[in-house]
Amino acid sequence: MKNLKISEIFREIVKILEIKGGNPFRIRAYERAAENIAGLSEDIENFIRGDKLTQIPGIGKDLAERIKEFVETGRIKVYEDLKKTIPAGLLDLLNIPSVGPKTAKLLYEKLKIKNIAGLEGAIKKNKLKGIFGIKKKTVENISKGIELLKRGRERMTLAQAIQVADEFIKALGALAGVKKISYAGSLRRQKETVRDIDILAISDRPHKIMNIFTKHPDVGEVLARGETKSSVRTKDDIQVDCRVVERKSFGAALLYFTGSKNFNIKIRQIAIRKGLKINEYGVFRKNRFITGQTEEDIFKTLRMSYIEPELREDAGEIELAQKFQLPELIKVQDLKGDLHVHSRWSDGGNTIEEMARAAKLRGYSYIAITDHSQSLKVAGGLSVADLKKKRRQIGQLNKKIKGFRILYGTEADIDSDGRLDYKDETLREFDVVVAAIHSGFKQSKSQLTKRLIRVCRNKYAHIIAHPTGRLWGSRDAYDIDTDEVLKAARDTNTFLEINAFPQRLDLNDLNCRRAKEIGAKLVIGTDAHTTEQLEMMKLGVSVARRGWLSKNEVINTLAVEELLKTIKK
Description:
Elements: H1 2-19, H2 24-38, H3 44-49, H4 61-73, H5 77-83, H6 90-93, H7 101-111, H8 116-124, H9 136-154, E1 156-157, H10 158-173, E2 178-183, H11 185-188, E3 193-194, E4 197-203, H12 206-214, E5 219-225, E6 229-234, E7 239-245, H13 250-258, H14 261-273, E8 277-279, E9 282-285, E10 288-291, H15 295-301, H16 317-322, E11 337-341, H17 352-361, E12 366-372, H18 384-400, E13 405-413, H19 424-427, E14 432-436, H20 445-456, E15 463-464, H21 482-492, E16 495-499, H22 509-518, E17 522-525, H23 537-546, H24 560-567
Parallel strand pairs: 4-7, 11-12, 12-13, 13-14, 14-15, 15-16, 16-17
Antiparallel strand pairs: 1-3, 2-4, 5-6, 6-7, 8-9, 9-10
């Protein structure tokens, strides 16, 4: 929770400095620190205790002091002082897609707009018309951005939900008497966004659990407290419910509270047809308890195969389970490497060697270092001369690190016409070419579709990164003909990425399932910029599982030599 809060404060500082026209190097320092802290897989306090804060990429002495200040006091004075220099609601304007620092400043100076409500009112009264630089299309984009922002605030990303839930489960699971504990709901189904969190536990001391739960340091308000169920709202305005159930009913409660609603309705109907009743307490014949301790027991009683939580959406999985024909879903341990990783050669926070050794520790046998290409200068894109030096370094490291292979790669920029920004003689040298769109997001559906299809036909483009371009809470997916792109990828032996970065998760689960139906193959990449962010792979795997993918449909489950043969066009 502290990681997220510190990251959020640093991002707010970035916004204030941008509005005020602050030093770009200072802005970038806070921006990079925010990204890297958000990507940490362990609590920031562990770095403080081990005096290792400055080992986090992007964290120097000054920012380390800011982090310590927050952990000790719950605030950062620099941030509090900066907030006083601008109207309170002005920061919210920068959360709206299409509203940058210059636009926010202009709206305030010309129309005294200092919050989202004021901006909505000005749009309704057509007051933005005629303001310098603001055209009709800009106003339309701002209106869409406001709606997108509102939707985003109602939910949190899967990564945020996991982090919040884990904080509570860690505290409750350590209690004596807690026999079992798990989260349920849409979080257990691994939905890409989550509204609130459900926790279930078995314990012979429910009062103790409720006491620790409601007094957890992250709790901002206790909404309800009972003997076996309580609800709280965290300081970040997230509702968390906790229930203690009997051992014999734990599986039934887990099944019921995991959902989804439509899935539960259909399962109840199946039970009724078999002369049974199923609810959160168990499976009953008339009033006699049959089973309920585990979900596996319940599915067995209903004469169907176990349905993984990620599939429980009433999307055909129940019918296949009754025939015992469900696919075996991909698992994290099936993956043998990560094919989308950045290093200090572009905008990453760690060296190639550090990224490689971290990947090896995760059990991988290879990693592709895909730093940005030359046209993306803002992200430290590499010139052809830089590439030669990088390639030599990779060769040296491959001799040094035994039992592991570093693949020479790039994240090549796709231009507005669908061309890559290196010439063919440069592209053919790479082991892996990941192609990505970083600009021109507002092209027409036809233009964007043709752009992606053209890059699929490029002999040297192996993978399309984050294919629909969406960023949760700030940018919707591009308007493309998804089926046409999937077919082009299938026909050209181009692989589409499930980008595991928490704000992306792109392709999403529905597109993954459609890719499977069409016959397009996929790859899961973290887009990691630090060693810690390699941990995000599990989020990409969650998307793949929700998309019904087995390991045969994801190419980085292959050994390295087989992989390189498979991606060759």
